[in-house]
Give the backbone structure.
Amino acid sequence: MRRLILMAALLLPLWVSAQYRSQVWCPDNGDGTYTNPVINADYSDPDVCVGASGEDYYMTASSFHCVPGLPILHSKDLVNWEILNYALGNLYEGDEQLLQHFSSTPQHGNGVWAPSIRYHNGWYYIYWGDPDFGVFMVKTQDPAGKWEAPLCVIKGKGYIDPCPLWDTDGRCYLVNGWANSRSKFASVLTIREMSADGTRPVGQPVIVFDGNGTANRTCEGPKFYKRDGWYWIMCPAGGVPEGFQLAMRSKSPYGPYEHKVVLAQGKTNINGPHQGGWVHTKYGEDWFLHFQDKEAYGRVVHLNPVDWSTGWPMMGRKGEPVSTYSKPKASSTVTVNPEESDEFDGPTLGKQWQWHGNYDEKYGMPTAFGTMRIYTYKMSDVRGKKEDVPSAISHQPSSIFLVPNMLLQKTPSDEFTVTTKVRFTSKADGQMGGLIMMGLDYSALVVRRIGREFQLVQLTCKDADKGKPQTENVISTLKPTAEDKIDYKPGIHEDIFLRLTVSNDEAGQPHGGNPIVHFAWSRDGKKFTPCGTPFNMRQGKWIGAKFGFVSVEANPKADRGWLDVDWLRVTPKEPIRLKDSR
């Protein structure tokens, strides 16, 4: 009996994790219907495939500079999703020269663009374009396990959004788009033949679609399929916020392709519905997962039915996206959502978290004490290629825009509250740590050591990507809650509860409205005092705003301080109160 109890105790956290249900967004209505978005978080450029069982669906999405990269999400019904794994550790892993060059600087907006995921002959493949270095591929036989090291299958600049197709005769083709920022041309799709194993090109690229000078400008993000003897390319066009979804067909992989708009906003309030993946289920149904751009919240994931009765994949209701619809047929009845809250009780970091730059173990790690420790990052270590670092930032040590050790996660809903219990330990003046909402603009509520005390400070920066100066708002002076009594490198400690609330008077509007962040703090975790100035949340470079933790210092010689995070909980929006007038 004792052994059974012990086994149950060990398995309980795994069971709870597998059944995580969000308090702020769950698309499953519990009555056989769902409400879009099926994931109300920034999984930009999603693609999906059906797994070996026929009842497992795997999705990946752009991760850009955030690591680990290439998230792997799993679902049994296309509505209920969990974060299963990541296929990529650090950016440029396997290339020591690139790893060294980019080790200390977040590559905002670079890295992993618009991946595709496919299952072929017992292997799962992910291809993605890095606009600076080429087309890369990783593969595995178990999406939940280890993925092989990345392989560069095409070297060069400008390649984006690749997707393979293994034909019925065993030949492999690759379609891709082009990044104007690197190649100085765009709005064309090209196809080339690859080796049968998909590891190298064996043919020259052929332009098969040209959207230049037409309403189909910005055609990109293509996905390649074959159905009933037709080759199909499905891709977005018309731009990101207000674009639409195209389907193209040809009897030859090299075209010519005829095309048709199969999904557009129409009379709905769902703007720019496009770029995603089509799946045909074992139950004979067809579905399309795609994103909607909600600006500060990023690009959230929608699910629409697909009707092939006209010979074209008409999506949603007669080509317009649905808000609520009957769930896909499935044997599973499990309700599960991507995790957000974290008690930090395990030896591994929760899968909802990503670092804002390539990971170094000196950034921080889980502890055996039920906390996540994040060490202060030395601002003197901020560096990068000349073109990566705006001149104002390079001379502004207080800016944290290029700090890589921020531990962040995606926003999970239009409105929500984040509360965390932390202890900040300082070894020297100026060390600081706390809670942040990060984007091209950012705002953070931190504790900072000044002498033998701490200050509670709001740090805010507008246009951080352009090197604009950071402002500081000192809210309160706090006595340490504990002090080391030893003579050898003593520290002082501050135990505090920090809170941010995202409020949106226009929640549900096409672009997500205008989200505002309010901060508050508490000594006991019960009575919270509103503080600071409301902050207009803003997206990052190609990603939505992200919240989490920052821990930094300017002193290059001092022993590092650290932020120990006991827990973080995401709950429905707390009522917003004005800060005390005292």
Notes: DSSP finds four helices and 38 strands in the chain. The helical segments are 2-18, 96-101, 180-183, 391-394. The longest helix spans residues 2-18. The first strand starts at residue 33 and ends at 35.
